[in-house]
Amino acid sequence: MNNNLIIGMAGAGGDGVVSAGDSLITALAIDKYHAVLTKSFGPQIRGGESSFKLRVSTETVLSIGEHLDMAIALNWDDFLKFGAELPISEQTIVVYDSNTGILPENIPVSGKPAKVFSIPIEEMAIKTAKTNRAKNVVVLGLISGWYGIAESGIITGIRNKFTKKGPEVLKGNEDAFYEGVRYAKENPISGKNILLDQPHPEAKNKLLTDGNDICAAAALFAGCEFFGGYPITPSSEVMQLINREIWKYGGSVIQMEDEIAGAASTVGASFAGKKSFTATSGPGMSLKSEVLGLATMAELPMVIVNVQRGGPSTGIPTKSEQSDLFQACFSAHGDVVRPVIAPTDISDIFSMTVEAFNIAEYYQTPVIILSDAELGQRKEIIDEIDTSKFKIIDRKKPSAEELENYTRFKFTADNISPISHPGMFKGNYLAAGIEHTETGAPTSGGEMHAKMIAKRTNKLNPLKSRQDLFIVEGDKDAELALISWGSSSGVTTEAFQIARKSGLKVKLLIPKLIFPVAESVYNDFFKSVKKGLVVEQNFLGQLYHVARMFVKVPDGVQSFAKAGSSPFGANEIVNKLKAL
Amino acid sequence: MSTETVETTKEFTAKDYKSDLKPIWCPGCGDFGVLTALYRALAEIGKPPHELAFISGIGCSSRIPGYSTAYGFNAIHGRALPIGLGVKTASPDLTVIVASGDGDGFSIGGGHVPHTIRKNPDITFLVMDNFIYGLTKGQVSPTSPKGLKTVSSSYGSQEEPVNPLLYCLSYGAKFVAQGTPADMKGLAKILEEAIRFPGFSFVNVQSPCVTYGEEKDMIKGQKEVMQSIEELDHDPTDKAKAIQLSLEYGTKIHTGIFYRDPNPGPSYTDLLGELKKDLQPKAVSKDKILDMFKPKLG
Question: What is this model's ipTM?
Answer without folding.
Answer: 0.96
